[in-house]
Amino acid sequence: MGLFSSSTRQVPVVAAVPAHVAVIMDGNGRWAKKRFLPRVAGHIKGVELVREMVRACLERNISYLTLFAFSSENWRRPQEEVTLLMQLFVKALEQEVEKLDRNGVRLRIIGDLSRFEPRLQELIRTAEARTAGNSRLQLTIAANYGGRWDIMQATNRMLAAQPDKRAGWLESDLEPWLAMAFAPEPDLFIRTGGEQRISNFLLWQLAYSELYFTPTLWPDFDTAEFDRAIASYQTRERRFGRTSEQLQGTSDA
Ligand code: IPE
Ligand code: IPE
Ligand code: MG
User: Fold this and answer.
1) Mean pLDDT to the nearest integer, 94-114
2) Which among 50, 71, 110 is the best mutation to test ligand 2's pocket, defined by most ligand atoms within 8 Å of the CB?
3) C-alpha angle 114-183-5 in degrees, rounded to nearest 5
4) Catalytic amino acids?
5) CATH class of 20-236
6) DSSP alpha helices (H): ranges in 109-178?
7) How many CB atoms neighbour CB 252 within 10 A?
8) pLDDT for 250
9) Domain boundaries, the chain
10) Which three-class secondary structure state does DSSP give residue 22?
11) Which residue has its alpha carbon closest to ligand 2 atom 12?
12) pLDDT tens digit string along 137-162?
């Protein structure tokens, strides 16, 4: 699937290994609670698992990894937890970017970044610029991201770019303005932590993704768990609206 391509407009080419994996990393708090630790201990462990996940994607030639780190609704959490999460984000950017760069990882942060402290915004800009020339793995962190926010910011920018156009807008007009316009739509969506919901993640882009839900808490989601998710993906028949017979080539395609 090329740039701005859409699973609702054309049938994408499907490979055995997903090109784009999107993950809701959920369950950090419960992981900590089970161990009688503060919630932040779960978030710290969660960052380690992000590192492991990036390594696994590099090894498996997965081109895009998109991780939901902080939703637009997560501001509703206790102030103390929000502050700690922001501190962890800053620390991760300070400590990990050099290694990501060395490994050919391009880092992007998507979401409404205007709500972050200036120092964090600056770290994000620097990290993105530093890794902009890399293409082995495109790692995207969704922070203060919401799927509805994304659709609205894209709509507003689309309308502003063509102020005289009054009607006849197409999906393909909107897509270049979406936060993930640089990537094909996710092939595989994973949510850890047992909940079976999207929680306002990539609403537009998940239209035809294969969904995988696991009760495993994010800090326990190791490489073996990831391989189970990929194995499940490989059993799926991705029809994109067609019949099974068409896919198997036993009738007119
Ligand atoms: C996901 O883990 C991390 C973030 C939302 C930042 P949670 O913090 O939601 O963990 P649970 O769901 O309470 O276990
Ligand atoms: C979704 O997790 C967002 C992230 C993992 C960043 P939540 O734990 O916030 O989701 P809900 O509120 O339970 O749906
Ligand atoms: Mg949660």
Assistant:
1) 98
2) 71
3) 120
4) 26, 74
5) alpha beta
6) 118-131, 147-161, 171-174
7) 6
8) 65
9) 20-236
10) strand
11) 199
12) 999 999 999 999 999 999 999 999 99
Ligand 2 pocket: which of 199, 203, 216 to mutate (most atoms <8 Å of CB)?
Answer: 199
Is the pLDDT assigned to residue 65 strictly greater than 80?
yes
Cα(133) to ligand 1 centroid in Å equals 32
Q: Could you tell me the strand order of the sheet in which 137-145 lies?
A: 105-110, 137-145, 64-71, 20-24, 188-191, 210-213
Asked if the model's pLDDT at residue 251 lies above 90, the reply is no
* Nearest Cα residue to atom 9 of ligand 2: 74
At 205-234, the pLDDT tens digits run 999 999 999 999 999 999 999 999 999 999
Quote the CA–CA distance of 133 and 105 in Å, as a whole number: 9
d(CA 161, CA 159): 5
Contact of 188 with 234, CB cutoff 8 Å: no
| Nearest protein Cα to ligand 2, atom 2 | 26
The answer to whether 18 and 230 have CB atoms below 8 angstroms apart is yes
- Could you say which ligand is closest to the alpha carbon of residue 23? 2
**Pocket lining for ligand 1, CB < 6 angstroms:** 25-30, 70, 74, 85, 193
Ligand 3 centroid – CA 26 distance (Å): 5
Nearest to 59 by CA among 206, 235, 230: 230
Q: What percent of the chain has pLDDT over 70?
A: 97
User: Is the pLDDT assigned to residue 253 strictly greater than 90?
Assistant: no
The residue that leads in pLDDT, 130 or 9, is 130
| Average predicted confidence (pLDDT) for the chain | 96
